[in-house]
Amino acid sequence: MLMIKGRVIQATGAWYQVKGEDGLCYACQLRGKLRLHAPQLTSRVVVGDEVFFEPAKEQATSVIHKIMPRRNYLIRQAPHRKSYGQLLAANIDQALLVVNAVTAPTQLGFIDRFLVVAEAFKIPPVIMFNKIDLLDTVQQEVLERIKRLYEKLNYTILLVSAHTQQHLASLCQVLLGKVSLLSGHSGVGKSTLVNTIAPAVHQAVAPTSQFSQKGRHTTTYTALFEVLPGTFLIDTPGIQTLVPYAIRKQTVSHCFPELRSRASACKFHNCTHQHEPDCAVLQALAKGEIAPSRYESYQQLVDESNE
Ligand SMILES: Nc1nc2c(ncn2[C@@H]2O[C@H](COP(=O)(O)OP(=O)(O)OP(=O)(O)O)[C@@H](O)[C@H]2O)c(=O)[nH]1
Ligand SMILES: [Mg+2]
Ligand SMILES: [Zn+2]
After folding, report:
1. H/E/C letters for each residue in 117-134?
2. Which one of 30, 215, 216, 270 counts the least CB within 10 Å of its CB?
3. pLDDT tens-digit map of 5-16
4. What is the pLDDT of residues 69-113, one digit of tens each?
5. What confidence score (pLDDT) does residue 306 get?
């Protein structure tokens, strides 16, 4: 049987678009056996996966026979099936969270969730505030403070506008030569950014609702684009929430750099940094060395974790 190696570039329910090493795109389905064995996952194959598939003869469907071991992946709790994980993408170099700069101050919890998931799966995160063209001076100052908070923790923060193209050059520098996943709420401008960076891509975009300012879930499936040779962007449907999947309570603090670095100074080696005496984290929090918003996110994620 002739098999070709390829990369999954689109996933829409039961169908996968696979770009073969021959440079052609194939519409594939999963071999029956692969369909059966997807324990606790909403989908067995995800964009970014490398697969071996049997190309179809004429009108028939191509069939994915084998999924190669993943270099890495991002996963969250499936929104409607809580005991299931939902893979977001595989084999990526970095994960970008796009945030609407206007609502940034109310998004710190969401940002921290994203950072925790990225840390847990060892994927470098980037936080990108888009739509900075809409900010007034006060909002600009608030955003600068948020930027400094995360930069102090060594995270990469970008302030951009897809509309005015402000700072898009720095964004391109961050993207160059890498596979980057774009994630975030609906309507924050993920697809607009992809279209702006790569004019050959024509992802649908739509205005946010006048009433709620929320997005309309315009992008409905994940897709990977090669925007330059060797530079890939993965556009995804907007997510409402991001609940970590299979991250143990004890692991949560390891995903906060400012907690991780202080934990060894706590009196108890298994300190939860919540009520213990001589806790270096609580001391740093009291001294203002740890941001209250970050600590709040930590507590929230520990409470949520049922592992
Ligand atoms: N003012 C302003 N509007 C922007 C900017 N970037 C995107 N938008 C607008 O925001 C709206 C939503 O953009 P989309 O690109 O569809 O958002 P999305 O994140 O892909 O949304 P989903 O596909 O639903 O997840 C559109 O009306 C865009 O024109 C920006 O930098 N400034
Ligand atoms: Mg979109
Ligand atoms: Zn402690």
Report:
1. HHHHCCCCEEEEEECHHH
2. 270
3. 999 999 987 799
4. 999 999 999 988 888 999 999 999 999 999 999 999 999 999 999
5. 74
- Domain end, chosen from 69, 90, 120, is at 69
Ligand approaching nearest to the C-alpha of 206:
1
Q: Is the CB of 100 under 6 A from ligand 1?
A: no
CATH number reported for the structural domain that contains residue 15 in this entry: 2.40.50.140
Task: Indicate the number of domains in the chain.
Answer: 3
208 lines ligand 1 (CB under 6 A): yes
Whose alpha carbon is nearest atom 2 of ligand 1? 131
Residue of 293, 98, 67, 274 lying closest to 180 (CA atoms): 98
| Tokens 């709790």, located at residue | 77
Task: Please report, for the domain that includes residue 263, its CATH number.
Answer: 1.10.40.50
Domain boundary among 177, 211, 235: 235
The pTM score is: 0.95
Measured CA to CA, the distance from residue 182 to residue 180 in angstroms comes to 6
Most ligand 1 atoms within 8 A of CB, residue of 129, 165, 183, 205 to mutate: 205
Q: Answer yes or no: do 161 and 133 share one domain.
A: yes
Instruction: Return the ligand 1 atom nearest residue 182 CA.
Output: 19
pLDDT for 201 equals 85
Query: Tens of pLDDT along 124-163?
Result: 999 999 999 999 999 999 999 999 999 999 999 999 999 9
Q: Does the CB atom of residue 223 touch ligand 1 within 6 A?
A: no
Residue 183, ligand 1, Cβ within 6 A: no
Establish if 242 belongs to a structural domain. no
Statement to judge: residues 174 and 223 lie in one domain? yes
* Cα-based distances in Å from 168 to 3, 107, 174, 181: 40, 22, 10, 16
Mean pLDDT value across the chain: 93
